[in-house]
Amino acid sequence: MNDSEVVVCRLSHRPGRDDRMTTHVGLTARALGADRVVFPDNATGSAETVRDITDRFGGPFEVELSGETKALVRNWEGTVAHLTMYGLPVQDVETELREAVAAEPLLVVVGGEKVPFEVYDRADYNVAVTNQPHSEIAGLAVFLDRVFDGAELAQSWEDADRVVVPKETGKKVVEPDE
Amino acid sequence: MNDSEVVVCRLSHRPGRDDRMTTHVGLTARALGADRVVFPDNATGSAETVRDITDRFGGPFEVELSGETKALVRNWEGTVAHLTMYGLPVQDVETELREAVAAEPLLVVVGGEKVPFEVYDRADYNVAVTNQPHSEIAGLAVFLDRVFDGAELAQSWEDADRVVVPKETGKKVVEPDE
């Protein structure tokens, strides 16, 4: 759905402790309009879960494992936005970010423990969804919703095995028409 | 910051497995403008973490433990919005929800495993932030940002020990002026 590729990169991952958080970063990236997520190569279980959801609920969406997430940030050809509670308010930079993503690929960096200074330094935008401590998943969600200006909520999915039909009450899941 | 009280209720909690998710639900509720969060009474560690953050970064924000989260939903005097991937698109109901929160207290129900049908049935709104599986934390974040129409990003905090000053690069934390 995007003019240019939008990629979410989870910088670091602690197996066990971070499994659900990393999985939710990936699922949020997929549901809210990113084209691809990159996890550290020790996040194999999270990658599997996100791929499985993509197989069942549709794509296109890519999941990658990388041993070099910091190099990905360093060498990214396009705009780098790093989500951090120390950054500039998202509401102050979202217009610029929308223009950036129309022009060139956007890498959205979601930290973990101890983000090295080189990431702050390389980032074109250090972006804060509030300057309060909360959740990298919540920050990513609001960031994507604002950068895509809500268009991600109307995106369609290809090659889904199942489709949820919105209901006032209860649950309705159908097979896709095609 | 709200006309009426906005309360987030985490319906169920599995100690150990859900600790970080429940903590992030609480921190997201606080950072993105809710007045209070209610956790199941087995989520003591998460409650402690959210209270600690409130002590350090400011309030007002209340954390409660309850042995009767389902009864809270059942007996809520005001509007109940239940976040679920099976519900109506948030973009279709957000205007009504803004009017509702201006008029009466809003309870935002964040599920867990196996939400009983009575919650779907009691809810005035079953709301989906996309009809895709992703994260209750991401869903809550986008929901609050939309219901508050971004006003929550500009809220001020009382009785904080420390304040993060937005920076283009790096980190700046100061003591509050007062």
Automatic annotation (TrEMBL), chains A, B:
Enzyme class, broadest EC rank: transferase
List of residues binding S-adenosyl-L-methionine: L83, G111, G112, E113, K114, V115
Keyword Repeat: no
Enzyme Commission no: 2.1.1.206
GO-annotated molecular function: tRNA (cytidine(56)-2'-O)-methyltransferase activity
Signal peptide positions on this chain: none
Cellular location(s): Cytoplasm
Cellular component GO terms held in the UniProt record: cytoplasm
Reaction equation(s) it catalyzes: cytidine(56) in tRNA + S-adenosyl-L-methionine = 2'-O-methylcytidine(56) in tRNA + S-adenosyl-L-homocysteine + H(+)
Function noted in UniProt: Specifically catalyzes the AdoMet-dependent 2'-O-ribose methylation of cytidine at position 56 in tRNAs.
Family recorded in the similarity comment: Belongs to the aTrm56 family.
Record-given protein name: tRNA (cytidine(56)-2'-O)-methyltransferase
